[in-house]
Amino acid sequence: MNKLNKLSTALLTALAITGTASAQKTDFKFEFGSGKKIKEGYTSVTPATVYTKDQGYGIDFGYPAEAVDNGGKDPLKASNLTGSKPFYFSVDVPEGNYKVTVTLGDAKQATVTTVRAESRRLMLEKVETKPGEFVTKTFVVNIRKPQIDGGTKVGLKDRELTKLDWDDKLTLEFNNSHPAVSAVEITKTDDQITVYLAGNSTVVDQDDEPWASWGQMIPRFFKPGVAIADHAESGLTLASFKGSRRLDKVFSTAKPGDYLFVEFGHNDQKERGPNTGAWKAYTESFKYFIEQAKAKGIIPVVVTSTSRRAFSDTTGKVVNTLGDFPAAARKVAQDESVALIDVNAMTADFYNALGKEASTKAFVHYAANTWPGQGNKPLADNTHFNSYGAYEIAKCVIEGIRSNHLGLEKYLIDAPKFDPSHPDDPNIFSLPLSSPSPVLKAAMFAKPDGN
């Protein structure tokens, strides 16, 4: 090869490496505010910094942010972005876990900021600052793509094709009565324990208000060191989770020491066929999940299905509508010597504590015209939860982690001992409502699959 060819080859190789590095950027520092003063090493994000695919970051989905400029020498404290409604910021990133550090506060005003990620995963809850006070908070967001090593893909449902959990971006929602964001730093991290969630609509990251699940609430209770990867989807059974290659996806990215929490039953109960039932296909499939996880060094945890809101007219207490499926899950945990989190029993205690009427406050039970676009049809869903119900059930799961002394226990934050027989008062619970993104508005008030 002559010198010219060698030079050309080297140049092309360098360009290819540069292009790949650019496309796969995984570390970012953004300064939010007016853009008048920019700290060295940071990229400015102002209300005019609208997300485009070419740019790869920006304010997203058409919900505007507002700049507050207080002046001062420190660029990160001189200005911030806020909004009278939730606003969204997105960054294109590869698959993986990301540490996100946000600087919150305002030089002159008190602030309250709640942060969600992706499809409404609760990351930070009501972080308050006094005038002139600034705080930094770090949390971990799991990003996944449908592609699986070997050239296959997850078999997504049509309703998942616009889901923020499966797109090419890391999306943050800033919300509450006075959010104030001065800076966002994002760094890929490979040293987190990842907790994979396999389940149905009671576990999935629900896209829109008023539905919610425990899977999207539980990230709020973990400090860095743990990432939650919620692979659940509405309407799924153990068999369809596996058949749509979701279990393959989990195992393609999971590493030894990670966890696999498995909760199914609501939809498995409806399957019909010669080998269906709690003690046949359900048990066999559950054992398959566990055996495969163990073989890969992943720690399986059995989670029994959430109870439905069904009260006996005779006793006034919750009755089991899931047949033998909770018992079968308990038996699998015993047979396979794995941890059991008995959410079925805990949620029954939770509903009984509230009582028949008040328990509707944990579910999607709303009069007609309660929500914009709802129309004249009331919502009376006794299977799926609102934010309050999902939050309380996440606490049940946390209690199960603690009672089983799982290694995750040391990463818990703001999670005092919880007794589902003495839940939080639904009348004083509050989380700011998310705004639906434009790509999701078409799905508003479509009940989750498997209802």
CATH H level, superfamily name of the largest domain: SGNH hydrolase
The helix/strand order is HEEEEHEEEEEEEEEEEHEHHEHEHEHEEH
The termini sit apart by 67 Å
Taken as a percent bin, the fraction of beta residues is 25-35%
CATH architecture of the largest domain: 3-Layer(aba) Sandwich
Q: How many helical stretches?
A: 9
What radius of gyration results from the CA coordinates? 23 Å
Q: Give the spatial strand order of the biggest sheet.
A: 2-1-14-7-10
Give unreliable regions as ranges.
1-22
**Which overall shape is indicated by the principal axes computed on the Cα atoms?**
globular
**Count of domains:** 2
Mean pLDDT: 92
What's the number of extended β-strand segments? 21
Mind explaining what this structure looks like?
With 451 residues, this protein is α/β, with parallel strands linked by helices. It folds into 2 domains: 24-190, Galactose-binding lectin (Jelly Rolls, Sandwich); 192-433, SGNH hydrolase (Rossmann fold), CATH 3.40.50. 23% of the residues lie in helices and 27% in strands. It is built from 9 helices and 21 strands. It has helices at residues 3-23, 75-78, 214-217, 238-243, 246-253, 278-295, 325-336, 343-354, 387-403; strands at residues 27-32, 43-45, 57-60, 66-69, 79-82, 87-92, 96-105, 111-117, 121-129, 134-143, 147-148, 152-153, 169-178, 181-189, 193-198, 226-230, 259-262, 299-303, 339-341, 363-366, 379-385. The strands form 6 sheets. It has a 5-stranded mixed β-sheet with strand order 2-1-14-7-10. Strands 3-6-13-8-9 form a 5-stranded antiparallel β-sheet. β11 and β12 (152-153) form a beta hairpin. Mean pLDDT is 92; it is low at 1-22.
